[in-house]
Specification:
Layout lengths: L5 H22 L4 H12 L10 H21 L3 H6 L1 H25 L4 H12 L3 H10 L6 H28 L14 H35 L4 H23 L3 H13 L4 H25 L4 H5 L1 H25 L4 H11 L4 H12 L5 H23 L1 H11 L1 H8 L20 E4 L3 H12 L4 E5 L2 H9 L4 E3 L5 H6 L7 E4 L7 H11 L4 E6 L2 H11 L2 E4 H23 L1
Parallel strand pairs: 1-2, 1-4, 2-3, 4-5, 5-6
Helix pairs in contact: 1-2, 1-12, 2-12, 3-10, 3-11, 3-12, 5-6, 5-8, 5-14, 6-16, 6-17, 7-8, 8-9, 8-15, 8-16, 9-10, 9-11, 10-11, 10-12, 14-15, 14-17, 15-18, 16-17
């Protein structure tokens, strides 16, 4: 192989084998990510045959990390996180603590250092955002309450991991690894210096970056050149990541994350995400392939029990801890099991942490192989866990007295307060879902003086509504008890504003049974689903795209009529 062509050869091999094994993984009903990792193993030094340039692949993977983190920042919504903060924040931190403690315990038994155990445990604690989003999208529950909690949980995990990536180089020396600056500086000095650098960078991005970079994006957009716009987005992502490392001494990952966050401030953020997606996906493939190249399959033969222990922590240890916490916070069993299934895998952040731990001399090479083995197995098994949610839920309700007691125990938010005036619960509207659409409907009803009761699964939203003296109950409206508590028997209209249309039929059947004269209003984005709902429920169904087109057309017609009258 000619040395000057090693870059082209490495990219061609990584993308070619990634495509081949990715297609094979999808055919086997596995995430394509498993195929990318397998492709890396095949072209890596641990297997015979062709061997790609590991050094070049690692540098390409750095670009993949930047673009992955840029994408996380670009989609990071503070409002979505605040909506589920009371469950996502304590849940993610507790789960990280439990998994990290398990990792430290295993490392101690294997004779590793505290620093190795810390990095190892943290790598086992953080789930893959890429795998989760694809799993939720494929099941149509990304915008559901359970989906929002799972995504919010992972956003907190991502933020904690970003903080760890920033602090780990400063802590490496005291933990027994290589000091970030190669000296024997004290822990206090190292932490102080790191936090000062990060603080300066964050302040710069929030004060200058959030104004400068969206303005720059608008200037490029005005050229009407798609190529220039795409180039501007990628240049901003990589340039900010590189500049943050050179000027402020922070990691590429943090720089790219904040690049995405400040570009989200722009009205062009959706276009930026769309234009950068193909390049992000391509370099993400290179990242996962390069990670696979570092995996030594012999770890499965030489340390099978260690691999099983790692998989047990990922799939059972941290997931059970998450499920118990969700139940303790009075969320339904279905939410607890869905969140725990979402977290029962590890991915990109685990690889980044492992690579950093090895580069700092904290973790042995075996640790990275164990993490990779755990990732491949857990990602492959994850779709099966989602399939098992319903059977497991039925089994627990049948065989666990503790679960039955927890679900049967009275919940103050599941019943309307006795202080709600009787006239507000007669001829009222029952509004299911208080998301983006539900909020707008509620505002219009309030402005028109129409009484309504909200049924919402998010406890934080229900608590906030009650503080504003708005009648609201917590729970899944597909369960008759929730609609009964919303006084559906005396309601005039049932408005289903939740994007989760799987349980709409159950909601309408309960409403019709308790109140045969009630009118039902439903939202959907699917014309086939809309037609089925019209036939089966007789309700009024609104399709988002049709309503938008209708409103725009009415405005155009009204504008033309006004002009005609003016002439």
């Amino acid at each position: 192989m000619h040395h000057e062509l090693s870059l082209i050869t490495t990219i061609a091999a990584a993308l070619g084998f990634g495509l081949l094994f990715g297609m094979l993984a999808v055919r086997l009903k596995l995430p394509a990510l498993v195929g990318y990792l397998a492709a890396g193993i095949v072209i890596g030094p641990a297997t015979p045959g062709f061997v790609a340039d590991v050094g070049l692949a690692s540098q390409l993977a750095e670009i993949g990390v930047m673009l992955l983190m840029f994408g996380v920042g670009l989609h990071f919504s503070l409002r979505d996180l605040l909506d589920v903060r009371k469950i996502a924040l304590p849940g993610a931190i507790l789960q990280i603590a439990v998994a990290t403690a398990m990792g430290i315990g295993m490392a101690y038994l294997w004779g590793w250092s505290l620093g190795a155990g810390l990095v190892f445990g943290l790598a086992l604690s953080v789930a893959s955002t890429v795998v989760l989003l694809r799993a939720l999208e494929s099941r149509g529950i990304l915008d559901s309450m359970n989906g929002r909690i799972a995504v919010g949980w992972l956003v907190v995990e991502d933020l904690v991991t970003v903080l760890v990536l920033v602090l780990l180089p400063a802590l490496a020396g005291p933990l027994g690894g290589k000091s970030a600056d190669g000296g024997d500086t004290s822990l206090l000095y190292a932490l102080g210096k790191t936090l000062l650098q990060v603080g300066a960078f964050v302040a710069f991005m929030l004060i200058v970056g959030r104004k400068l970079f969206p303005w720059f994006l608008w200037k490029v957009a005005k050229t009407a050149s798609r190529e220039l716009f795409t180039l501007a987005v990628i240049a901003a992502a990589v340039g900010i990541a590189y500049g943050s490392s050179e000027l402020f001494g922070v990691s590429f990952a943090l720089g790219a994350f904040f690049a995405g966050m400040v570009l989200r401030e722009s009205d062009l953020s959706h276009r930026a995400a769309e234009e950068s997606l193909p390049l992000r996906d391509a370099f993400s493939v290179l990242f996962f392939v390069s990670v696979g190249m570092l995996f030594d399959p012999m770890v499965l033969v030489e340390s099978p029990f260690r691999v099983l222990a790692v998989v047990a922590v990922i799939i059972f240890g941290k997931s059970i801890a998450a499920m118990l916490l969700v139940l303790a916070l009075r969320y339904p069993l279905n939410t607890a099991i869905t969140v725990s299934a979402s977290l029962a895998q590890i991915g990109e952040f685990s690889f980044i942490l492992a690579a950093l731990g090895i580069s700092l001399g904290l973790m042995p090479q075996e640790g990275q192989s164990l993490i990779l083995a755990g990732a491949i197995i857990s990602i492959a098994v994850n779709p099966l866990l989602f399939t098992a949610i319903e059977p497991l839920q039925r089994w627990l309700r049948t065989n666990s007295q503790a679960v039955r007691n927890m679900e049967a125990s009275p919940d103050p938010l599941a019943e309307l307060p006795m202080s709600v005036p009787h006239e507000r619960l007669t001829g009222q509207v029952v509004l299911v879902g208080f998301g983006r659409v539900g909020r707008r409907i509620a505002d219009e009803l309030t402005a028109q003086g129409v009484h309504f009761v909200v049924a919402e699964q998010n406890r934080e939203l229900v608590e906030a509504l009650r503080r504003r003296d708005q009648p609201a109950v917590v729970g899944n409206a597909a369960e008759p008890a929730v609609l009964i508590q919303a006084h559906i028997a005396r309601a005039a209209v049932l408005v289903i504003a939740t994007p989760d249309t799987f349980e709409v039929r159950a909601m309408i059947e309960t409403a019709k049974m308790l109140n045969p004269t009630i009118r039902c209003v439903v939202r959907t984005h699917n014309e086939e689903e809309a037609e089925l709902l019209r036939k089966e429920t007789g309700g009024r169904v609104f399709i988002g795209e049709q309503e938008l087109a209708g409103s725009m057309t009415r405005y155009v017609v009204e504008t033309l009529e006004k002009k005609a009258h003016a002439h």
